[in-house]
């Protein structure tokens, strides 16, 4: 068996022999870890590189503290260590402004194509920017760099070295994006616009991109600053149609006085699609009037007509529509789904059932709408030939491991279907991992806590891997307690049934301690951390949330004050601190919402003020499942459903059994 798992390697260079030995040691540790209980397997059970790793960290400290002779000795001793290039990087980086250009160029060339070479390239270009060495910047530019800020500086460097025409010719591709670009691009954009390169049609093109992406702030800037004459009036009409689609019919009259009928049509169609989701009847009636006043292309007319037809509540709404454009089907489905949720809020069960039958077939079969079809039929107490039996639908749903499957299982008093099946590890995939230097470096970087570099190496090493390789990679990451990558790898491999890897008992002692001290369900804490960060301790969101439980600094500060603690922003990246503050905030929310985890979970994602506003709107009239389904924000709706479902899975992982919601939560109208 040993030889089947570890076939002989061809002779390689000394460094590859070293890499091979390292990976084989790690694989052995990993396989041993598979036979251990989850909380017994350790990320650092391997020992092959323990001495070298310690020496690497000592060398890094020596370099930082100016012990250069000692550093050079360790650098030479670590020449076969996989992270040797990173020591070289730090050595060069420390003196990069004083070193000969050739030294930096030689490093980039020696490791060309690797993440560490790309890192040096970015660092070097930033040095050249500060030193205003524009010709050197142009000479050393790598077209493979995708960083927008550095690309803008490349064009600025070209401009400053006399290649003005060539530089300005490349600006449009950078400018035409549906979002704001880095400030470093602003002088370049200003020169481009001042030079007359920006036409009104190109400005309109970016406005359209921004509106499609719902970036109304950027769109407003374009309308105010860049559009002129009729284009400016059309741009303002575009914004009005987006913000108040119900006023479309009135505002459309002014569009008839303007030129550019194609853009007027674009505005009307944009507003009409938004209006259809809010008020199908009024928007449909307006569409009839609009067709009399505007000459729409046949494709535009067909798209709106199909949207209206497919959004109708008749079961036969889709009859005759055999070939559909996928985008139209998707838009229609979203429109219908919006009306289903409106019907749920009004407890209009006949309409709920009718609208679900109007969905395109693939959408009807989703767990979500199968559940609500069964609920609507059950509420109506219908017993008609040809109608499906709610109990039969529930029985099928209960076989699935998701939010709706768990809901259905509770309704028919069935056991939850966990379908826990460890992912099979392909020996040949492990063989190839041992020859992947990016993977070796990624795992070793993770071990020394250089997480950003580790992720870059991991990404480079896992690119274009097939399912079997991704599964092996995920299990390898699990053996290192690199849970974020273990989870992501199995997701990319589309292997869903390995619950040990996908729902790890990470930071077990810290979470169980927080659970006990705050009197919170451990499974709930686990579910929040799993949903928020996939157990990535250094996770940072675009909104500024930090750490395992994705705490906003302000929220963390308030929570720390309650506990009598003083914390810095950087402390939120420490798992113990983050779990302590996050669990305390959850305790506060649970108390605020009288022990209801559904509301506390919603507040954790969307904020307590929004939850109170939504409760005022529903006025304690909705059962918990309908309230969750009609949460206005799609992200929050999915978040709450995931956390509740993950809680069930974590109860299973902790050898406990609890229902999706408590009887108290289930009985409370929201």
Describe this structure in words.
The protein has 670 residues and is an all-alpha fold. Helices cover 66% and strands 0% of the residues. It contains 40 helices and no strands. The chain starts with a helix and ends with a helix. Mean pLDDT is 88; it is low at 1-21, 28-46 and 313-324.
Beta-strand percentage? under 5%
* Mean pLDDT across all amino acids: 88
Give the radius of gyration: 30 Å
Computed structural class: mainly alpha
Question: How widely separated are the two ends?
Answer: 59 Å
Contiguous runs where pLDDT drops below 50 for at least 5 residues: 1-21, 28-46, 313-324
Helical fraction: 55-70%
The general outline is: globular
How many strand units? 0
Q: In this structure, how is the largest beta sheet organized? A: none
Number of helices: 40
